[in-house]
Amino acid sequence: MNKNTRIAIFGSGNGTNAQRITEFFADKPDVEVNTIVTNKKDAYIVQRAKNLGVDCIYFSRHDFFETDNVLNYLKQRNIDYVILAGFLWLVPQNLLSAFPKRIINIHPALLPKYGGKGMYGERVHEAVIANHETKSGITIHFVDEHYDRGTTIFQATCDVTPDDTPDTLAQKIHKLEHEHFPVVIEKVVSGRM
Ligand code: GAR
User: Fold this and answer.
1) Which domain holds residue 117?
2) Which residues of the chain have pLDDT under 70?
3) Cβ contacts of 169 within 8 Å, gap of 6 or more
4) Would the CB of 67 count as within 6 Å of ligand 1?
5) How far apart are CA 2 and CA 177, in angstroms?
6) How many domains is the chain built from?
7) Active site residue 107
8) Which atom of ligand 1 sits closest to the CA of residue 12?
9) In ligand 1, which atom is closest to the CA atom of 17?
10) CA dihedral 21, 26, 30, 31 (to 10 degrees)
11) Most buried of 55, 63, 117, 162 (most Cβ within 10 A)?
12) Sheet holding 5-11, edge to edge
């Protein structure tokens, strides 16, 4: 199938969002998950990519920050949008310039709270619980040169109950992410959001 819009998913970890997004678009006519890019050779996202039959490539810190290797790879594959799904490095300027308003991140909290360097995954949920928040949620946003600061595209919330642990809260957040992230991506790339 020749699809119009080609997506690259960047991830550093387990890759449940990458899998969900790939499966969501598998039978859609317009959008293709063309490649998965990781900065962690041994992350489970690599195995998921293999299982899904999506090309997966590893780039080192040097490649990311000191060269145009990642940019050239994306250009060579005619990538239109970059989706950060659990990707833990700041996006370098060469990619930001090449993909204006075309790099989208998901964050497991209601930004601007609980964002910034070092705020990822479990650490976010620990902080939310430690502060006795009664609500948390997800933020999907465009990426700029700062951690977790670009324009918000979408938020969804969930309750944080007194018996929640970082693990149970992570499960609630993943449920929201899996439900909304592919749909929001579809709306953004088709100009409906
Ligand atoms: C997701 O919850 C995502 O929001 C979070 O990492 C998890 C990745 O899960 N991202 C951040 O914390 C970025 N600051 P996954 O690998 O199973 O998709």
Assistant:
1) 5-189
2) 1-2
3) 125, 128, 129, 136, 160
4) no
5) 28
6) 1
7) yes
8) 16
9) 18
10) 30
11) 63
12) 55-58, 31-38, 5-11, 81-84, 103-107, 135-142, 152-159
